[in-house]
Amino acid sequence: MANTPPDFDAVVVGAGFSGMYMLKTLRDKLGLKARVFEAGSNVGGTWYWNRYPGARCDSDSYIYCFTFDRQLLQEWEWSERYPEQPEILRYLEHVAARHDLKRDIQFGTKVTGASFDDTTQLWTVKTDKGDAVTARYVVAAVGTLSATNVPKFEGLESFRGKSYHTSQWPHEGVDFTGKRVGVIGTGATAVQAIPEIAQQAKQLTVFQRTANYCVPARNGKVDPEKVKARKADYDAIVQRIRSSFFGQEHYFIPKSALEATPEEREHEFDRMWDAGGFAFWLGNYQDMFFSAESNRLCADYIERKIRKSVKDPQVAEKLIPKGYAYGTKRQPLDTNYYETFNRDNVRLVDAEADGPIERITPTGVRAGGTDYAFDILVLATGFDAMTGPLKALNIAGRGGAKLEDAWKDGPRTYLGVAVAGFPNLFTITGPQSPSVLTNMPVSIEQHVDWISDCIAHLEANGKRTIEATTEAQDKWVAHVNEIVNMTLMPGANSWYMSANIPGKPKAFLPYLDPEGAGGYRKRCDEVAAKGYEGFALR
Ligand code: NAP
Question: Is the CB of residue 377 less than 8 Å from the CB of residue 157?
Answer without folding.
Answer: no
